[in-house]
Design brief:
The complex is a heterodimer of chains A (76) and B (211).
Chain A lengths: L3 H13 L5 H13 L1 H20 L6 H9 L6
Chain B lengths: L2 H12 L5 H26 L1 H11 L3 H17 L10 H15 L19 H9 L6 H5 L4 H10 L2 H12 L4 H8 L3 H26 L1
Helix pairs in contact in B: 3-4, 3-5, 3-9, 4-5, 5-10, 6-11, 8-11, 9-11, 10-11
Classes of the chains: A mainly alpha (76), B mainly alpha (211).
Amino acid sequence: MMDPCAHCEEMMQPYLDRILTEAERHEAEAHLAECDSCRRRYKFEESLRVYVRRAGDTAMPPELKQKLAALRIPLN
Amino acid sequence: MSAGATVARVEADTDQEPGAAEAESGMRLAAEARDRVHFEEDALALADQVYRVARHLAGSREEAEDLVQETYARAFRSWRSFTPGTNLRAWLLRILTNLNIDRGRRSQRAPQMQALEANDYFLYDRLAESGDGVSDEDRVVERLSQDDIVSALSEVPHDFRDVIVLVDIGDFSYQDAANILDIPIGTVMSRLHRGRRILKRELAESAAQEG
C-alpha cells in the first residue's frame, strides 16, 4: 500500500484545483485532519496560489484604455 | 426582363409597399450598429482583465500594451465572428495568444523536457528549513516577495507559463484554457502540473540566491 503522505501529495494539486471527486476529497481531508506535516504543506501551497494570483495584479495604464477606445469603428 | 420588372415582381411577391425594403434594410443596419456598439463596450469593459493576463504572457510591459492594442483592433474588425452569449474574455484572449504566437513565439513546438524535483513540496521544505524554525505557513510564503514571483514566472518556458497565467492568474477553467490555446485539456493539465513545479524550482533558486 502507498505511503499515505505520498498519496496525499498526489492529491494536493487536484484538491486545490477542486477537481477531486467527493470521495477523494474526503479521503484527502481525513488524512489532513490527522497529519500536521501534510496540512502545513497544503496550506503553504494554497497561500502560494494566492501569492501568484496577486502577482498578476497589474493595473492597465490609463492611456492604454484611451487608445483602445479610439480603436472603435466609428458609426457612419 | 428589365431590371424595373424584376423589382416590381419582387415587390409583388413579398407584398411590400414601395420603399418597405429600404426601410427594412435601414432597420437591419441600425440593429447591427447597436449590436456592434454593445460588443465594443463589452470588450472594453474587459480590457483590464485582458491586460492583466497579457502582461504575464508577453515579455515586457511594452509588448503587452502592443498585444492588447492589436487584439482590440482585430476584435473590433471581426466582431461578427463572436457568438453572443459565449465567453467574450476567452474569445479576446484567444486572439491575443494567437497574435503572441504569430510574433515568433515557438509555442506550437513540444516544450523541452527538463528534470524536475521529485516532489511537489520542495519549495516549502527549502523555505521552511531556511527559516528560524517557525513553520507558520503564512510566514513561510512571506519569505517570497511579489517581485520574486513575477521574475520566477518570467523564467518559466512559454508553453508552461501560458497555462499558469491563464488558469492561476486569469482564473480560466481548464476547458477555457484549452480552447484559448487550441490544445487538448489533458495537455493543459500536464503543462499546469509541470509548470507549477518549474515555477517553484525557480522560486527556490531565487530564495537560495537571496540566502
